[in-house]
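Question (not urgent): is this output format expected?
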Amino acid sequence: MILRRLADAFRRQDWFAVALETLIVVLGVFIGLQVNNWNEARKQADLQAKLLERLEEEFKVLEPVVADLVVFSKSAQQSTADVVNALREETPPADEAAFRQALGRANWALSVPQVAAAYSELVSTGRLADIRNVELRRALIRYGDAHERLERTYPVAMTLIFAPDSNYYRAVNWNMDTATWTGQGAILSYDWELLRASRAEMQSWVTFQYDLALFAEAELVEIRSILSILAEETDSGA
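Got this back:
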């Protein structure tokens, strides 16, 4: 209809009508594009809000798991260090109960938790760059880096610590009742001289246990930073 009126105006050389009809067409196209842009922006805003909600839910679940991993890794590292220090002496330590407890905890290990699914999805789809909050995006990248270091270190550490032919496992007689493993009865007996031969092995354990604790703590710092930023986003959007 508008094009017909525009053609008629051209034939009549009614330039005012031509200008008016052209303006109507341009405004119609402009308004249509703006509506499309607003709709697309609203969709993107909705998607981002849902994504941030998923991130917050997942990292809230992940935070205590990684916090336990940090505590656990530091405890194992300290126990191993205590055993190594005791093995420098000629005879077993006077505090037999404390030594057995350290001996039992020296090879403790927790599995590395899986990377947050929402973060993994962001990386795999290339949508991490779509996160508008720069600090959040940087914290997510640092989280991914820390988790990657942790994942790389864990299998190497486990191969070393749980090597079945190590002097530690030849020297230590473990109780097969798992209920005793966190208490005083985990270690039934040990061969002191053979255990002393495992000192070099256990010194290398400390190195890997230190790295596991370090990378887990770095991951925990970023998880808490992410949660803090997400909480601010929620408050500002409320």
